[in-house]
């Protein structure tokens, strides 16, 4: 496996990417006053600022602001948009946690558009790994003997 694939799913430090409220507003098209209001309602949270004055937001919060805005643009109420955004964040956190914990290896045959993802040991049979294979656009699962 090449270097890119081996590092693909290592935890990216997105929690360390911090933006000011003006940057969040510019990136999302949501006004600073709306961002402050959403924060006062508990829909989003700012990070502790070292200067104690300016609001700072994580990259994850920027994504949440954008999601809420998208749901509002689709006609949801603020409460509904915030709930849907939280649900979506929970789904992505769960998927990220799963892949960080299980991902072992990946191989892609770009010419044939086939791929395989090794998800590590299969708990009922520790001598075998669970491997997902994409063949002709469909995913298939196999247990591969690791003792060879």
Can you summarize this structure?
With 148 residues, the protein is of the alpha+beta class.
Q: Helices and strands in order, then pairings?
A:
Blueprint: H1 3-7, E1 18-20, H2 21-28, H3 32-40, E2 56-58, H4 59-73, H5 78-102, E3 105-109, E4 114-122, E5 125-135, E6 138-145
Describe this structure as you would to a colleague.
By secondary structure, the chain is α+β, with helices and mostly antiparallel strands. The protein contains 5 helices and 6 strands. It has a 4-stranded antiparallel sheet, with no helix packed on it. Helix 4 (59-73) crosses helix 5 (78-102). It is elongated and about 60 Å long. The two termini are 18 Å apart.
Please tag this protein with its features.
alpha+beta, 5 helices, elongated, four-stranded antiparallel beta sheet, 148 residues, 6 strands
> Looking at the chains present, what oligomeric state does this protein adopt?
single chain
* Average pLDDT reading: 88
Fraction of residues in H or I helices: 40-55%
Question: What is the distance, rounded to the nearest whole angstrom, between the alpha carbons of the first and last residues?
Answer: 18 Å
| Structural class by sheet pairing and helices | alpha+beta
Please describe the biggest sheet, giving its number of strands, its sense, and whether it closes into a barrel: 4 strands, antiparallel
Total beta strands: 6
**H and E order:** HEHHEHHEEEE
> What is the overall silhouette?
elongated
Total helices: the number is: 5
Radius of gyration, taken over Cα atoms and rounded to an integer in Å: 21 Å
Give the spatial strand order of the biggest sheet. Answer: 3-4-5-6
Uncertain segments: none
- % residues in beta strands: 25-35%
């Amino acid at each position: 496996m090449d270097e890119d694939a081996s590092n693909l799913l290592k935890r990216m430090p997105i929690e360390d990417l911090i933006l000011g409220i003006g940057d969040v507003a510019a990136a999302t098209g949501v006004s600073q006053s709306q961002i402050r209001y959403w924060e006062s309602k508990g829909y989003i949270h700012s990070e502790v600022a070292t200067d104690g004055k300016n609001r700072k937001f994580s990259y994850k919060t920027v994504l949440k602001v954008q999601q809420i805005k998208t749901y509002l643009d689709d006609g949801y109420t603020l409460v509904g948009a915030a709930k849907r955004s939280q649900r979506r964040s929970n789904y992505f956190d769960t998927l990220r946690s799963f892949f960080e914990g299980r991902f072992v290896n990946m191989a892609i045959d770009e010419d044939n558009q086939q791929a395989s993802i090794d998800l590590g040991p299969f708990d009922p049979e520790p001598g075998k790994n669970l491997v997902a294979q994409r063949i002709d656009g469909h995913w298939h699962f196999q247990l591969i003997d690791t003792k060879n």
